[in-house]
């Protein structure tokens, strides 16, 4: 259980977890870039998949470290265990946004207009960012 003082400190602390954001961003990049590039026949980017568990583990350890030091984390991992329905909500929203953008936008942009997977992803990024807010 997180001490009440730690929770109050995190609520008033306005610092952004830049290191956590970079580690999570690198994990996602190492996962998505090879998937997008493999369509074009490039096999070398598949090496980046090795970075996914490394950066994900580093992210989790960093977030735990921030909580121990009573700093605000990018993602409070205690929510995954302590808040009923949080994990289910994440899964439902992930499935919704994956299916919705995949069905409506990706098919049209890639099949209808002939855009590459990378170009389609870049075009849909503002939609994903705005939807996440």
From TrEMBL:
Record bears the keyword Transmembrane: yes
Keyword line: Membrane, Transmembrane, Transmembrane helix
Superkingdom to which the source organism belongs: Bacteria
Keyword NADP among record annotations: no
Membrane topology: Multi-pass membrane protein
Transmembrane region(s): 16-36, 42-62, 83-106
Compartments reported by the entry: Membrane
GO cellular component terms, A-Z: membrane
Name of the protein in question: MFS transporter
């Amino acid at each position: 259980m997180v001490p009440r003082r730690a929770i109050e400190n995190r609520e008033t602390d306005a610092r952004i977890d830049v290191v956590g954001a970079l580690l999570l961003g690198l994990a996602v990049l190492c996962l998505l870039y090879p998937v997008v590039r493999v369509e074009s026949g490039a096999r070398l980017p598949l090496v980046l998949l090795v970075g996914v568990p490394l950066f994900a583990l580093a992210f989790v350890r960093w977030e735990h470290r921030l909580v121990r030091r009573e700093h605000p984390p990018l993602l409070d991992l205690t929510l995954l265990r302590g808040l009923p329905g949080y994990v289910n909500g994440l899964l439902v929203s992930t499935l919704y946004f994956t299916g919705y953008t995949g069905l409506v936008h990706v098919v049209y942009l890639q099949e209808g207009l002939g855009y590459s997977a990378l170009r389609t992803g870049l075009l849909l990024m503002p939609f994903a960012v705005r939807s996440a807010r």
